[in-house]
Amino acid sequence: MAEVAGFVLNVLTFYGIYLILALSFNIEYGFAGLPNFGKVLFYSIGAYLAGSMSAWIAVTVAGFAEGEPGKPVYCAGPAYTAMTEVAKTSVLVDIGVFMLSLVVALIVGAVVGVISSYPTLRLRGDFLAISLLALGEIVRIAAYTEYWPVCGYDGLSGIPTPFAWMGDAGKYAYTALVWVIAGGVYFTVQRMTNSPWGRALKSVRDDELAAEVYGKNIARVKAQAMAVGSALAALAGVLYAFHVGGVFAADFIPLPTFLVIAMVMLGGPANNKGVVLGTGVIVLIDQLLNASVLNALGIPLPQGFLNAVTYLKYVLMGVIIILILMFRPQGLIPEKPLDTPIVRRASELVSTHMPTQQTQAAKENTSDRQDKRS
Predict the structure, then answer these.
(1) Does pTM top 0.85 for this prediction?
(2) For the residues of 104-135, what is the DSSP string, one character each?
(3) Which residues partner with 156 through β-bridges?
(4) Angle at the Cα of 79 (from 53 to 162), degrees rounded to 5?
(5) Pairing between strand 246-247 and 156-157?
(6) What does residue 246 show for φ and ψ, rounded to 5 degrees?
(7) Buried b (16+ CB within 10 A) or exposed e, 317-326
(8) 152-189 pLDDT tens trace
(9) What does the alpha-carbon distance between residue 311 and residue 281 come to, in Å, rounded to a whole number?
(10) Are 161 and 174 in contact (CB under 8 A)?
(11) Angle formed by the axes of helices 125-145 and 39-62, nearest 10°
(12) How far, in Å, CA of 87 to CA of 97, rounded?
């Protein structure tokens, strides 16, 4: 029973994290038409920042001054225990580190997003996607081979949740917090995309030349889309780091990017409600295809199949994306006109005057028939 409860809690937490990621990709690809295949890069930036900041502050508070030669002080073995103890005994430090990580990740993610928007001015389609994908891999390999920021191939462990001082109840509190943040992000993204800014994104996506003729600054619009999307991805990375209690460079392979792509494509590009649905389906599939989950649920796996589960996810996500593109390119919930004030006003005017126009046309037709009879 406890294992099932833990599985459900884990699925709910990852759903909130991936919903933020999917909404960020929907802004870039669904609304702005930017195929950011380096989404995992910005996701990892948030995790690296959260991990290194929380670890450094914790060991500083605990009084650790020296570590192993050539390594950050928080990469020493005793530092992991110290981080947990500080979180349990100092509520203000625990919550303060979490809040500071969120703010710093949002700012750094937005800045990196603006910088990465410059290739979008020269590259299009497949070339842009491959370039951003390669950039994500370069950063992952660099983090894996260097001890800074997350202790290289050893990884950084011992990162407590902001509710570590609550004991076992802290897990439930953290899941609730992730859902609150995800709900706030959904509401914010929904308001932002259903606004004149959302219309600008769509205009750049559909026809850059026409958008420029109508006075849109293409470079600025793309930079804004990348900044907002990257900031939200970094925010998701922070939530991930505190949820799993560690940051390992090897975790940030391209798979999360393709999971997010499948979520948006399945739900419906440029439709935030569709993203909510698509995220739920893909997260459930992703979590069920974990070797540890399958073992906990009593599903036996053949010997040697454990390491193949990750590659099976790649294959399955690829098949899902291909099937969607072939049979349902608009997704489960197709894109709809933006719900901006001017669109609502136009709809009201049409609905108000349409009956009058129809009635007037009917009267004219009746009058014409009477004239012909006479």
Answers:
(1) yes
(2) HHHHHHHHHHHHHTGGGGT--HHHHHHHHHHH
(3) 247
(4) 50
(5) antiparallel
(6) -175, 165
(7) beebbeebee
(8) 888 888 888 888 888 888 899 999 999 999 999 999 99
(9) 19
(10) yes
(11) 20
(12) 10
